[in-house]
Target: Ig-like domain-containing protein
Amino acid sequence: MLGTCNLNNPYCWDQGIWHTSLSDIDMTSITSLPATSIALHNFAKTAKLLAIFAAYAASSQLCAQTYTPIGTTGYNHDVIANGIGNAASSTSHGLDELNYVLKSLDWKLTDASQAQTSGLPLDGLIVSNSSPQQSYQLQSYAANNSLRLSSDNPNGTLVLTDPSAYRALSILATSGSGTSSFSAVVHFSDDTQTTLPIQSVSDWFGGLNYVASGMGRVSRYNNSVENNHTNPRLYQINMDLLCSDHNKVISTIEFTRESGPGILNIFALSGTDKNAGLVGQSDLFTEQSITLHAPLKGGSWSSDTPTVAIVDNTGKVSGIAAGQATITYTSPCGTQHTHMVTVANTMPTTTALSSTSAAAVLASSITLTAVVTNSNSNSNSQGSVTFLSGADASTPVAGCTGRPIEQNQAECTVTLNTIGHHRYVAKFSSSNPAIANSSSSSIGVDVLPASFLVTVSPLPADAAAHGGSITCSPNPVNTFTHARCTANPEPGYMLGSWAGDCSHTPSSSNACTLSNVTADQTVSAQFIQVQTSFTGTTSPSDGTAAGTATASFSGGGSTCRFDAGNTAFVTAPQTLPQGQTMPHGMLDFKLIGCDTTPVTVTITWPDQVQGLTKWGKASADATSSSHFQPSNLLVNGRTTTFTVQDGQLGDDDWTINGEIVDPVGATVQAALPQAVPVPTLGHLTLALLSLFAAGLAALGLRKRSSPLSS
Model:
């Protein structure tokens, strides 16, 4: 159903213009056309247009209000590459988990690099393609320009540089690496607040109802550029404020990322002024209708002169007779808004041209159909239609000059003999002076080759040098059909990321589908080495000489590998296990991409060891590290072997996340304290002691033999 222009509503009617974010529908100037004018649209999309008209007729909501940019601060990351140099040097963080960022039109890798053909505008002004009255002002590309909210950092606050009151707010945002949702709390200057409903934001590739797209992106890793005419995409989220809050001055808005796998990026705010009135055209004809748009839906409508114009509860104004009428809208908040309309008596003839296809294969045929109507007679059989082609639409199509009108239609069959874009015009003319001839409008048809080539990199012949290769089948691929590309990693390697026309495919999938091919395709991929061993120099702290040690593992799955940037030999902690030393320090290692456990880890140390200790959290709720023995420990000379389970004892993050963090160190029994020697006596001293002892013995014998004893 039609209504407020937001992510949940791609269609709205504004001053005679249908606006939609679906790029395959382009229809303008449906009402209030010059006398007998032509409105062109693609026949293949007629069903969509009829559905839109039906939805509009049943709608009870309003859209197309004017939203103007709101100045804000509080952005925490720069995700837009600009200027000259590496993308990483002009940004602070990737927009998504693959470390891609948006790019400005002025970004170049070097002075000699070719200028960008797509990118964000230099002035940073984004105008919604689903509602031209809605615009946003991006922050400077040379400063923080995104409020980037992830699962690790889910909260952020934007501060209004000029606090003001608004009836409605609109948020420009996108989500990297999947969808995300957020809530918002609006803080007012009177210290009150209101909480807005939770909103969902689509992934920046492939989401519907986008308001800006096709600006391209660049990798912070290797500066590779991806230009796509429909991706990436930015989205708008419109939210009405409560009536009681319309006159309150907004000071800050607090955002919280609520759920989803993606990384939320908020770029700008815009708002509807509290004094905004009715929006819509003022002139119409009898038997014609226009639609007025109110700042808030849900109110009531009235006309002060129903004999001239009437209005229904959706804001649809219908002309009855020539004259003027004042249309009044009373909002749910009790505020009244008025709009003067002027009704005239005549209604021009209109012609709608359609084609059986907007794109077709060379040598095929299409049928052009012109539908000619007049609001008074609903028919224009008193005339004919001439079909024209060429760059200036001045060359009559063979066999299609002065085609008769039967049941309001005239047809022309065209055989497509030349590749490229072809422009066609249907021009109505009548000999009846009471019926004005229609002006010329055009429709475009793209004539495509029968097949297209898929360029892949790296090729199978280059697999050894790049760690893998890409194959696509069929290649060439027939126009409007599909091709399947497969990433083939070499032993010891895995797919790191897709690029080119497969960039929408996650790295977890080795297969990519190219759908409905209508142009040459380019597919590439980056392969990364699965590092199952790590060699480094130990870091002893007790005077032991440093040496070479090697760690390896088995198990963990095909993508389990050492995270070289977070694996190193380090010194032992100050607290050593009782009675043990750690002569070779510790190995602080991290395994990533492990989808099965346990993992068996083997470490060969520079010298023989007697044991192994882990230094970390002995339980999930531990607040400090301690020493404990690993599971299934085996010690053989210089080699230690043990097992560790993801998210269990020994994995220091205690989380089942495919990552194992494990600081370990070899131990040796500490030496016992040395005994203190007792001093010994010399030979002469021993002899004198012996004589002294003998003398004492003789004296004792003499006393026992004295007369006193008889």
About this structure: Residues 451-529 form one domain.
